[in-house]
Specification:
This protein is mainly alpha-helical. 81% of the residues lie in helices and 0% in strands. α5 packs antiparallel against α7 and α6 crosses α7. The radius of gyration is 20 Å and the shape is elongated.
Length: 215
Amino acid sequence: MSFWEYLGDRHQQLLTDAYQHASVVFQCMVVATAIGVLIGVVTYRSEWGGSLATTASSTMLTIPSLAMIGLLVPAVGLGVPPTVIALTLYGLLPIVRSTIVGLRGVDPSLVDAARGIGMSRVMRLVRVELPLAWPPVLTGIRVSTQMLMGIAAIAAYASGPGLGNEIFRGIASLGSRNALNQVLAGTLGIIALTLLFDAAYVLIGRLTIPRGIRA
């Protein structure tokens, strides 16, 4: 069976796996973004706090993804829970780091001007600092999403959702006539989803970042 014939025969299952893959990455990115930005906001004013936050989140990336999921399975079981926890933890570093860098890069004179017109610290953060820090934060989110697209494939090891199941089935049946087709379909599907997500981020950037800041 050729690769195109395999796609035609298995397109329904492949679309389901692709949807699950995109869904779990999207949901984990939402959670990782909320947590990562919050950590950045809390720690960016302190050199020690920022370094601690960056070091702690980078430590997660030193743990192999297969080992991380394997360690989580006894605690939370198979399927979605270990996948979500692992992906969220892996997605933190680029977002935490970019949030800290972005907030520290805001022109102090703009913050002083906002203080001068009576804005509270929370208002300055929400209306001045975070909007100006948004471009690097969005870059961190893009990098994190690209990482998680690949890592999510490992979730199939713990019966997780997504295109990783197609890849693992192919590896498990090496030598069969469809083994290469399965691995190729899963891999190309992940690449396609990554490009689609990245295109969406480019569009979000164009819609949310003023032209002057982009320039």
